[in-house]
């Protein structure tokens, strides 16, 4: 008996008679044309369809394989091959009687089946003709799981992949593959990017058999398995004294190791590499470029049709922060832009959405669009490292939509981040969208039941970047909870406002990092301090913010025009980012007419009050939620209330003491 939930694949009984009548007559017979029922992906698609329809509308499905010619029967589902559709896409047609799913391959067929199940669950009307082709070639989840079972930045229990140095291959892995396939994920990295100690030996005889089993499970749901690599493996595994990517002995070691890996795990998708960051060795250690390091591995894995995903989170954490031109925000661009065009075709650079580190608000990284001759992948974080640890509700899809819609101005048109990472801008095919995921072995997978909206939402958005944040939220609520329309509206409203609320009671106007060091939860205004230069927010008794104009660190110059000029002009810079780009006096007037210091006071008081309102709204639908769900969510909501109060008090007190300026509204600041 399993001890975990089904998340959005719970397949609640459709309790509206109309929906039952709409679909029941049409889904009893399923004809397959061009797809083999016993092929693993197709078999799982049919298994899911059979199970889902039985659960929701009590229909027993009959499968008719190898259907040939014209199918005359009107009330049926026809699943057929269609090579005119883009890879992994599908066309969903419903004329009110017959449902036709056309796809060029097994992945597309699987996604089309999940679309049918989603439509039944959401009780959609029976008229549709939708061509659904994936926005991004690669749609990936990165797990930061360690071999001992711990998860770096994990807030949902421990790993379900690893326990005490062993690899798990049971039914929970199958359920996980089902869930992420249902939203269109086609790649997963199972181990931490910070590959240390025993985790290095995933590429060793000890683990090959079970890694292969994992690859087969994921492969049967159209998902490619990737492994994180330790760039220093020749030293740590091979006993060598160097991992210089241009050293012939190092190259030979990697050739032998990669041959061994693919000999045991032939369907591995490739490797994810973090190098030259936070104390990790890499090409810079030997005076080589990032391109030389990535290309060495890419050339070796190319014969296995595999990919090297190279993270751009590279910065020198020992820099002299007293230098006014030193700016961590510059690091990714400075380290990777000079080598644009030098990366080989099976290298994809994985770039964090912002120049810092997954803050609640930061500008889009200027690397997007700047790399006109290099494969790019957007990396976001749905593990709530800096956004509430899955204690505080923070629906991140509105943020991801803002990032995807950001115009880089790298071209006159087709220049958004979504355009760039999809390959539309520069014609790339090895590119996409990835997320550091938020799952663990908790019963509900994501600690806070509401945090599952970020997992669901990322997958749906990666597959179709045109979906709106509210549309995704409403889908997730309908599929996850069997509640009334009124309760559904309450939950959607909580989700849609949660990111703005979290931002209000934490970081003002683009200033981040005011969190407790190491844990990254709770307020510590001066927590991140660098040498004599001070904190990331650079607050003094006169003002706050970082001057990133040409008079400061010069970071704004990394953007194309007109973004560079807009960010550099305090009067044109988007106010939600103004302190990221400018150091301003507390008396600076914002567009609202408020002073900067009054804005800080008001938003922190307001953010706390809005959390209390969120808590009250949740209590109002208590009777519509399963008791276990309500207990988990309300328990974390109590912690969120306390966290919001702490942020409000600490931030307001800190800036009152810094500035000496009273709150205009006379509220008590401790």
Report what the structure shows.
The strands form 5 sheets. Strands 7-10-11-12-13-14-15-16 form an 8-stranded parallel β-barrel. It has 3 domains: 10-132, Chitobiase/beta-hexosaminidase domain 2-like (Chitobiase, domain 2), CATH 3.30.379; 138-480, TIM Barrel (Alpha-Beta Barrel), CATH 3.20.20.80; 482-546 and 583-670, Alpha-d-glucuronidase, C-terminal Domain (Alpha-Beta Complex). With 670 residues, it is an alpha/beta fold. Helix 7 crosses helix 8 (290-301), helix 13 packs across helix 14 and helix 14 (485-505) packs antiparallel against helix 17 (596-620). 35% of the residues lie in helices and 12% in strands. The chain has helices at 17-24, 40-57, 106-121, 171-182, 205-219, 233-236, 248-264, 290-301, 331-336, 397-405, 417-422, 452-463, 469-480, 485-505, 563-568, 578-581, 596-620, 627-659, and strands at 29-33, 62-64, 77-81, 90-94, 99-103, 128-132, 138-142, 162-163, 166-167, 187-189, 224-229, 270-273, 307-311, 347-352, 375-381, 432-436, 529-530, 534-535, 543-544, 584-585. The chain is globular.
Summarize the model shown.
The chain is built from 18 helices and 20 strands.
What order do the helices and strands come in, and which of them pair?
Layout: H1 17-24, E1 29-33, H2 40-57, E2 62-64, E3 77-81, E4 90-94, E5 99-103, H3 106-121, E6 128-132, E7 138-142, E8 162-163, E9 166-167, H4 171-182, E10 187-189, H5 205-219, E11 224-229, H6 233-236, H7 248-264, E12 270-273, H8 290-301, E13 307-311, H9 331-336, E14 347-352, E15 375-381, H10 397-405, H11 417-422, E16 432-436, H12 452-463, H13 469-480, H14 485-505, E17 529-530, E18 534-535, E19 543-544, H15 563-568, H16 578-581, E20 584-585, H17 596-620, H18 627-659
Parallel strand pairs: 1-2, 1-3, 3-5, 7-10, 7-16, 10-11, 11-12, 12-13, 13-14, 14-15, 15-16
Antiparallel strand pairs: 4-5, 4-6, 8-9, 17-18, 19-20
Helix pairs in contact: 2-3, 7-8, 12-13, 13-14, 14-17, 17-18
């Amino acid at each position: 008996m399993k001890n975990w939930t089904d998340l959005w694949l719970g397949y609640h009984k459709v309790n509206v008679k109309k929906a039952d009548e709409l679909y029941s007559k049409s889904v009893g017979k399923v004809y397959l044309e061009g797809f083999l029922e016993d092929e693993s992906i197709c078999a799982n698609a049919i298994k899911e369809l059979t199970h889902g329809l039985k659960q929701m509308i009590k229909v027993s499905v009959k499968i008719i394989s190898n259907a040939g010619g014209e199918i005359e029967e009107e009330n049926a589902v026809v699943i057929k091959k269609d090579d005119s559709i883009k890879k992994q896409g599908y066309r969903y047609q419903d004329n009110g009687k017959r449902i036709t799913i056309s796809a060029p391959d097994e992945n597309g067929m699987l996604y089309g089946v999940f679309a049918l199940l989603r439509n039944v669950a959401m009780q959609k009307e029976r008229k549709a003709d939708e061509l659904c082709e994936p926005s991004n070639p690669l749609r990936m989840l990165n797990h930061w799981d360690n071999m001992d079972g711990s998860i770096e930045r994990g807030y949902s229990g421990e790993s379900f992949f690893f326990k005490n140095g062993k690899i798990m291959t049971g039914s929970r892995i199958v359920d996980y593959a089902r869930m992420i396939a249902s939203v269109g994920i086609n790649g997963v990295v199972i181990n931490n990017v910070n590959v240390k100690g025993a985790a290095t030996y995933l590429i060793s005889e000890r683990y090959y058999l079970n890694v292969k089993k994992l690859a087969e499970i994921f492969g049967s749901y159209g998902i490619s398995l990737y492994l994180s690599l330790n760039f220093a493996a020749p030293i740590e595994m091979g006993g060598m004294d160097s991992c210089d990517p241009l050293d012939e002995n190092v190259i030979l070691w990697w050739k032998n190791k990669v041959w061994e890996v693919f000999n045991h795990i032939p369907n591995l998708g490739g490797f994810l590499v973090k190098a030259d960051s936070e104390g990790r060795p890499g090409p810079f250690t030997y005076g080589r470029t990032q391109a030389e390091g990535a290309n060495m591995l890419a050339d070796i894995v190319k014969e296995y049709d595999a990919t090297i995903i190279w993270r751009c989170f590279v910065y020198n954490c020992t820099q002299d922060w007293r230098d006014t031109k030193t700016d961590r925000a510059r690091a990714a661009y400075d380290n990777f832009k000079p080598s644009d065009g030098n990366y080989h075709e099976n290298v994809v650079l994985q770039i964090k959405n912002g120049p810092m580190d997954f803050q609640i608000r930061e500008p889009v990284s200027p690397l997007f669009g700047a790399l006109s001759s290099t494969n790019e992948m957007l990396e976001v974080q749905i593990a709530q490292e800096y956004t509430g640890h899955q204690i505080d509700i923070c629906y991140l899809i509105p943020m991801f939509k803002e990032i995807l819609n950001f115009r880089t101005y790298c071209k006159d048109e087709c220049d958004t981040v979504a355009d760039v990472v999809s390959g539309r801008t520069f014609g790339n095919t090895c590119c996409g969208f990835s997320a550091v995921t938020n799952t663990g072995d908790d019963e509900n997978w994501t600690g806070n039941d509401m945090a599952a909206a970020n997992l669901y939402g990322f997958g749906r958005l990666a597959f179709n970047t045109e979906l709106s944040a509210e549309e995704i939220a409403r889908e997730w609520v309908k599929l996850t909870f069997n509640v009334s329309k009124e309760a559904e509206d309450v939950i959607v409203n909580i989700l849609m406002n949660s990111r703005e609320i979290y931002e209000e009671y934490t970081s003002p106007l683009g200033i981040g990092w005011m969190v407790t060091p190491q844990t990254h939860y709770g307020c510590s205004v001066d927590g991140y301090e660098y040498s004599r230069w001070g904190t990331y927010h650079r607050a003094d008794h006169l003002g706050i913010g970082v001057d990133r104009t040409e008079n400061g660190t010069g970071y704004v110059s990394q953007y194309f025009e007109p973004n560079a000029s807009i960010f550099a002009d305090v009067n044109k810079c988007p106010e939600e980012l103004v302190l990221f780009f400018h150091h301003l006096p507390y008396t600076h007037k914002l567009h609202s007419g408020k002073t900067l210091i009054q804005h800080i006071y008001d938003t922190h008081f307001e953010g706390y009050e809005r959390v209390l309102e969120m808590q009250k709204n949740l209590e109002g639908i208590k009777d519509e939620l399963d008791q276990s769900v309500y207990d988990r969510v309300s328990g974390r909501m109590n912690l969120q209330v306390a966290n919001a109060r702490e942020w409000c008090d600490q931030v307001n007190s800190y800036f009152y003491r810094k500035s000496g300026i009273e709150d205009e509204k006379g509220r008590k600041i401790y």
